[in-house]
Write a structure and sequence with these properties.
α1 crosses α3. It is built from six helices and six strands. It starts with about 30 loop residues before the first helix and ends with a strand. The model has no long low-confidence stretch (mean pLDDT about 80). The longest helix has 30 residues. Strands 1, 2, 3, 4, 5 and 6 form a six-stranded antiparallel beta sheet that branches. With about 230 residues, the protein is an alpha+beta fold.
Length: about 230
């Protein structure tokens, strides 16, 4: 009998040298597309840089019709991350020491309200700066500048009277909530800040008595709602 021959189809066509034909290889990106993509990225970066420089210039420039017309857009871009001032050239040294603490409030499923103890936010910054030859800008200034901006926009009654005041209030709230969540955890829906201000005593001049120490001032801010945190 004559045996039936079987034919096995090759799973992949190959040329005489055993290599996959060129039309089966993955297509390489077109040089034209790479050039266009690179050019677009460069143009986008340059445009962003130019817009940033223009908005910062309008922010620091003396008041003029252009800066007043676009003040809303300028403030939305500059505050709070790109704020500029002249304190580098005319520094205003701190005359007080401040201890900023925060506590949280959580409503349990049974309706009971749980209030945590105070968490020292300033101590976190001090620990990051102490014995550090190159402390970060974040550790030195984020909380301090947030509080000074809050005082400038709210005064003593804790009532925001502008969009910037609301933004600074939310910024300060977010700092407290994120630090508490990162260091202590727990579930909470509201945050309250406490600021203890201790004036720095003026050094006594030669031949005179030292100034009497001034008592500390404690300020409690209202409870502010935050995005629910649960760790």
């Amino acid at each position: 009998m004559r045996e039936a021959s079987t034919r096995v189809e090759p799973t992949e066509q190959r040329d005489q040298g055993g290599k996959t034909p060129a039309h089966h290889l993955p297509a390489k990106p077109s040089p034209v597309l790479l050039k266009v993509g690179t050019s677009a990225a460069v143009i986008l970066c340059l445009a962003t840089a130019l817009i940033h420089v223009l908005l910062v210039f309008l922010h620091v420039a003396p008041p003029n019709p252009l800066s007043r017309q676009y003040s809303r857009q300028t403030n939305a871009w500059v505050f709070p991350l790109f704020e500029q001032n002249w304190r580098l050239f005319a520094p205003d040294p701190e005359s007080v020491n401040r201890e900023i603490s925060a506590r949280t409030m959580h409503t349990a499923p049974d309706g009971s309200v749980q209030v945590s103890g105070w968490f020292d936010l300033t101590a976190v910054d001090n620990a990051a700066v102490e014995h550090n030859a190159f402390p970060s800008h974040t550790a030195q200034n984020t909380l301090r500048r947030a509080w000074s901006s809050y005082m400038e926009t709210h005064g003593g009654d804790d009532r925001p009277r502008s969009e910037r005041a609301l933004m600074i209030q939310q910024y300060l709230t977010n700092i407290a909530a994120e630090r508490i969540s990162g260091h202590r955890g727990g579930a909470f829906e509201s945050v309250q800040l406490r600021v203890i201000t201790v004036p720095i005593a003026v050094p006594a001049a030669a031949g005179t008595a030292a100034a009497a120490p001034t008592s500390a001032e404690t300020r409690y801010l209202p409870w502010w709602k935050v995005t629910s945190h649960a760790n």
